[in-house]
Design goal:
Layout lengths: L2 H16 L1 E6 L1 E2 L2 E2 L6 E9 L23 E7 L13 E4 L7 E8 L5 E8 L1
Antiparallel strand pairs: 1-4, 1-6, 2-3, 4-5, 5-8, 6-7, 7-8
Amino acid sequence: MDWLALERKVDRVVGNAFGESVRLSFLKNGTVDPSRSAVDIVAQLHVGGDNSASLEGGRGDGYRSRLAAGMGELFLDRSRYTGPMPRAGDKVRANARAGQPWFEVSMVGDHDTNIIVVSLTRG
C-alpha cells in the first residue's frame, strides 16, 4: 500500500472516531452568500483552552504546544467533503457542543494531501 492510500485510510478512521457535527455557513461581505448554501457535516474540531503551555515550559510567549484560547482548527477530509471551499470570514458552528458556539474562518490551508485545515477564531 502506498503512503497516500494509507494516509487516506488513517484520516478516515480518525475522522470517524473523533468527528463531530458542525455547520459551515458561507458569507459574502458579512451576509449569507446565496451561491454557497450552508452545510452540516461531521468533521474534527479542535479548540484551544486556557491550558496551553509553552514548549519552553510555563505559560510564556514561546511556541505553544496546544491551541491558544479562542483559537481552533477544523479538519475536513478532502475525500468526503463535497461542499463549497471555506474562505476567510465564513462561520463554523459546533452543533454538538454546549451553547453551539460559533467560530470565524481566519484561514484555509488546502495544501495537505487529504486534509483541508480550516483555522478558526472564536466569534
